[in-house]
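Work Package 3 (structural annotation) set out to generate three-dimensional models for the target panel prioritized at the project kickoff. During this period the team completed the workflow that converts sequence records into discrete structure tokens, so that structures can be stored uniformly alongside our sequence database. As a representative example, we reproduce one entry of 616 residues exactly as it appears in the project archive.
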Amino acid sequence: MKQLVGLSFIICSIPILLLLGNSVWNELEIISIHEKQLTEDIQLPVIENSLPAKMFDQNGVVFNEEYVEWREPIEFEDVPEIIKQIYILSEDKEFYNHLGFNLSAIARAVVVNSTSESIEQGGSTITQQLVRLRYLSTEKTYERKLMELFYAYKLEELYDKETIFEMYLNEMYFGNQVYGIGSAATYYFQKPLEQLSIAQMAFLAAIPNNPSLYNPIPHFDNTKARQERLIDTLAENKVISVEDALAYKQEKITLSIRSKIQQHPSYSTYVLEELKWLIAYQEGLDIKLKQAQGEVERKTILNTIESRYTEVLNSGIEIHTALDSAKQLEDEKKINSLLWLDGLQASAVVVDNKTREIVSLYAGKHYNQFDFNRAYQSTRQPGSSLKPLIVYAPLFEVTAYTPHSLISGGSMCIGNFCPQNYGGAVYGNVSISTAFKYSYNTSAVRLLNTIGIDTSFGFLERFNFTSLVNEDRSYAAALGGLTYGVSTLEMADAYSSFIDGNYQRIHSIREVTDLKGNVLYSWGAEQETIWSPHTVQYMRSLLSDVVNSGTGIGLYANSSYLGAKTGTTNDYKDFWIAGLTKEYTSAVWLGYDQPKSMQFLEDDQIHFKIFTIIMN
């Protein structure tokens, strides 16, 4: 009989719908003609946790959380009975008896609204509210209200009452990007729902009626007043005694807001970027990207990577990293103090030699999360700091040259390209060791010509330099002259090959796990041999000479070994240092975001001081 009444009401509503406009007619067609489509439209989606992606440092301490929405679904049987009673009594007393909508409630709403110029009451059931939350807009028009009836009726045909109620409890909005009663408990009180007192449960239940008006953070008194009305409703309906109601209303409510943990933004911002490429690496999307034919296919794959990244990030993962929190904090504090000039910036990356893990990362002065991260997003001309990678190590790898071999430091031209040494100096034959530690440009170009541009780039391209282009294959590359440049992260990455000749992409992420500890993603442990033992020996000797008696005099590290290469670009627009100790490999960049001359800072050696800080 109840279904017959409901169907009769819907049929009688059709003429009204026709009078209300074409948009309703279009939706009516979906209902009456495309029954299958409607059924698919209102399938109840599986609501999954949208918990923070927690980041842990190397000591297992959480230092950052990321989430857009706070969702922590709860099973219907785990919802305390008092919560169910509150919503049944305050929102929909006939919930277990109606077929999606309540005719008497609708009639009352029509009477009330007829005396007002706007729709004040909707007579909505829990099922109708769920329809609005999941499938329709919340605008208050008669067209939309009538559409709710059709969707609500269909929803009740497809699912039982408990399923609908559970969905409703998990879908309600509690303000501050919190969805669902279970999530609200952990967000506002930092306790599971079942551990809350009845007073606290009623307080939470007060919020969804109007999440702005009853947002307890700015409008605590409003929320408390509605909580007391809900408690009175429980007493009026004999769910609790009047005495208990009085006690519950007098109970002090103290919020314990769960705020995001947001520490070490330079590092955490990079971790999120690395996560994206870790997912791509493990799921083979990085290979597809390299093999993409045309820009359209490339964009499609990039969109797929972004989609998978978002999906994984919102699934409640734990990201275990190599961050040395104490070092990160100390490095940032000291580097910030050195950048006293307005607009002067720096970036630095420190890698643990044993593990090839990034233990510290500096992205810029007073960096805030998701700002422009200079450590990995900024590409600048590397100057002479690129010479070890593109000239000297390839030279030792493919020829019989040694650090004692002679090379001219005199003037030269190859076609129209005529490099000059610092200050225009001209030298005769010098040892490769001398040419390296004093960074003679003409010698470097001669050596690149000896081994060949293609051979040199063949080595360079085995690293993770992402901005190299065909136009870079010129003799200017011997001096770090590139079209787009390189990032600080990429320089530290490539220099790590001088630890022992092997290369493994440096990384911040050790592993990504689900909430049960199952490993979802991790970088492979495979290493590629780039340099032979004799090349490594030669290069470490040359890098050490730079510090002891060359352009790197003044650098210091409390280690049994220290080697580095400096780099200065044209007009002093970039200062670089890249090198390693027994424990760490690092790269440092100093400059302005909008490049300008820093010649007046040359004697201050700020980049030397930064390198010394991060290597100790």
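The chain has a mean pLDDT of 89.
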